[in-house]
Specification:
There is one protein chain. With 146 residues, this protein is α+β, with helices and mostly antiparallel strands. Helices cover 32% and strands 28% of the residues. The chain is built from five helices and six strands. Strands 1, 2, 3, 4, 5 and 6 form a six-stranded mixed β-sheet that branches. Strand 4 (74-80), helix 3 and strand 5 (112-116) form a beta-alpha-beta unit. The radius of gyration is 15 Å and the shape is globular. The termini are far apart.
Length: 146
């Protein structure tokens, strides 16, 4: 079993769409991440009627990783709705999640995101964030701490 199958199976356990209340839907988008240490953490989407309270599966998985292990670097990520990523943009994190990952740890620019489960085609986060606005800030911080 390769890492992508392990991540898929871990995330799939979280998939069981349910209405929490007339205002909240959960478990309809799921995610699993592999941390720098090789541990797997999962998350699921929680959406409310007022969009400001939404939590994407990707951010929930990464927050679970941080809360439970203190790690901030994500090696690999899979996210999906009712079936594994199948190309055509499926499995790609939203803009807020991309930004969150980049701001959390600059090494996350190298996070492999599964684009197609069957072919195991991936894309690196950095490819989804060309000319990212925060890079000069990271570079300035490195100079200050050198």
């Amino acid at each position: 079993m390769d890492i992508w199958e392990r991540l898929y199976l871990a995330a799939k356990e979280q998939y069981h769409p349910e209405e929490i209340s007339p205002f909240f839907l959960a478990h309809h988008v799921v995610c699993a991440v592999e941390s720098e240490s090789g541990e797997i953490f999962t998350g699921f989407c929680i959406e409310g009627c007022s969009g400001v309270m939404n939590l994407c599966a990707e951010r929930v998985a990464v927050l679970n990783m941080y809360v439970n292990s203190g790690q901030t670097h994500v090696r690999r990520m899979i996210a999906f709705l009712d079936r594994p990523p199948h190309g055509e943009g499926s499995g790609m994190p939203c803009g807020a999640c991309r930004e969150f990952l980049m701001q959390l740890d600059i090494r996350n620019k190298d996070t492999e995101i599964l684009e197609d489960y069957e072919s195991r085609r991936t894309v690196r986060l950095e490819e989804l964030m060309p000319m990212w606005w925060g890079m000069p800030r990271y570079e300035a911080s490195e100079k200050e701490n050198a």
